[in-house]
Design a protein that fits this description.
The protein has 4 helices and 4 strands, in the order H-H-E-E-E-E-H-H. It is α+β, with helices and mostly antiparallel strands. It has one domain. Strands 1-2-3-4 form a 4-stranded antiparallel sheet, with helices on one face. Helix 2 runs antiparallel to helix 3. The protein is elongated. The protein starts with 17 loop residues before the first helix and ends with a helix. The model has no long low-confidence stretch (mean pLDDT about 80).
């Protein structure tokens, strides 16, 4: 006789307003699901959406602050790498007065560590228009390719939230 293991569940009580309870009951009857199933589906969807929101917020805030401070103000080199993405900015020597040129390389990798996106080039970080376009592109790509389940990305988030407390 096969052994059936119970599903790990957590029970939490949640009180609904009368109108919400009535709406939920009508919806459950209309779609042929239980009220609990609908609630679990809604909470799961909400948590997933918020998860992506935190990825976007943390990457944007942390990288914007770090790149602004390290690269634009102090004009130092910058490297950050996780298993799913990396960004490297190396100071170039051929600056003219009022310029600050950096070579940048951004890579995104899949779970098998194969490079799926790579961009490199040079940028004068002192030019406001070029810098804002560059930063926008880098942030968009990192948000797109960041693996939320990656351990190093989790450390990245942990460091960010630890620095805020």
């Amino acid at each position: 006789m096969p052994i059936i293991t119970p599903k790990d569940t957590i029970q939490k009580t949640y009180r609904l307003e009368t109108r919400q309870a009535d709406d939920l009951e009508k919806l459950a009857k209309a779609v042929g699901r239980t009220q609990n199933e609908l609630i679990v589906m809604a909470v799961t969807e909400l948590l997933y959406q918020n998860r992506q929101y935190f990825v976007t917020e943390v990457i944007e805030k942390r990288l914007t602050d770090e790149l602004e401070h390290i690269v634009r103000i102090r004009e130092n080199e910058y490297r950050y790498k996780t298993s799913s993405w990396s960004l490297e900015m190396i100071k170039l020597d051929n600056d003219k007065e009022g310029e600050s040129w950096f070579h940048y390389c951004y890579e995104a990798r899949n779970k098998k560590s194969k490079v799926i996106f790579r961009e490199e080039g040079e940028i004068d970080v002192k030019k406001e228009a070029d810098w804002s376009i560059f930063l926008e592109k880098v942030l968009a790509n990192m948000q797109l390719y960041a693996d939320v389940d990656d351990e190093e990305t989790a450390i990245f988030f942990h460091d960010y939230f630890a620095s805020r407390s």
